[in-house]
Each structure stands twice: as C-alpha cells, then as structure tokens.
Amino acid sequence: MTRNNSGLIVNGGNVVAGALAVNGDATNYGDVHASIGAAVDALHRAVESTSASPETKAKVANELQELKKEAEVDKPAAASRLTKIVEMLKAGGATIRELLAISTPLGALAQLVGSSLAMLGF
C-alpha cells in the first residue's frame, strides 16, 4: 500500500508509471518503474493538445524523439534539449495556460533527466 498526502492509496504488486509523486513517506511492496519513454510519450500527447502551430508541434515531436535516445546516454544534454523544447513551445504559440497544463508530464520528464521545472524557466 502506498499513500500520499492527497489520500492516494495503491494496493497491488506492480505500479508502472511515467512519474510517481508522493508527498511524505511511501512504502512500496512491489515494482515501481519510471520510464523516460513513457514520460516522453505523455509529454508528446500533452503538447498535441496545445494551440502551438502544427509546425512547432512537429518540431517538438522530433526533439522529443531525440531526447528519448539522448536521455539514456547523456542526461545533461537531454535536460538542455528539454529547455529548448519549452522555448520552442513558448515561441510557437502555446499559451501560458497550456504550458501550465503540460507542467505535470514536463516536470516528470525533467526529473528523469536530472532537471526541474524551475531550471526549465517555470
């Protein structure tokens, strides 16, 4: 059983997630896997829901695929690429509200590559 301050309780053997955020103590009696691939996919889906231009979305999709490869061998470079992606979204027409809406998958991916939302300019 895993609990966090929001009252979330997870019972079972396996929890597979792109990110697992817990405020306070957590005990896991199974497997927990955080996957860069799953986090990239979640961010890609979130980006698709923004009003960024189709051209920007295509460029971001390419950058995310490169980040997925890069993150396994060079996390600082992947973190740098993630900063570039945020700047592309800002310049490509994503609104502040949309950027805030994608902050959960963005933050999960940032943690996996050794960065943070603050380091990304949030």
Any overview of this molecule?
- The protein has 122 residues and is mainly alpha-helical.
- 52% of the residues lie in helices and 10% in strands.
- The chain has five helices and four strands; from the N terminus they run ββββααααα.
- The chain has helices at residues 36-48, 54-71, 75-91, 96-101, 103-112; strands at 2-3, 9-10, 14-17, 31-34.
- The protein has a two-stranded antiparallel sheet with strand order 1-2.
- Helix 2 packs antiparallel against helix 3 (75-91).
Low confidence ranges: 1-8, 10-20
SS elements, strand count? 4
Helix content: 40-55%
* Coarse structural class: mainly alpha
Question: What is the radius of gyration computed over CA atoms, rounded to a whole number of angstroms?
Answer: 15 Å
User: What characteristic shape results from the CA principal axes?
Assistant: globular
Biggest sheet: strand arrangement:
1-2
Output mean pLDDT.
79
First CA to last CA: what distance? 33 Å
Largest sheet data: 2 strands, antiparallel
* SSE series: EEEEHHHHH
Helix count? 5
Q: Strand-residue fraction?
A: 5-15%
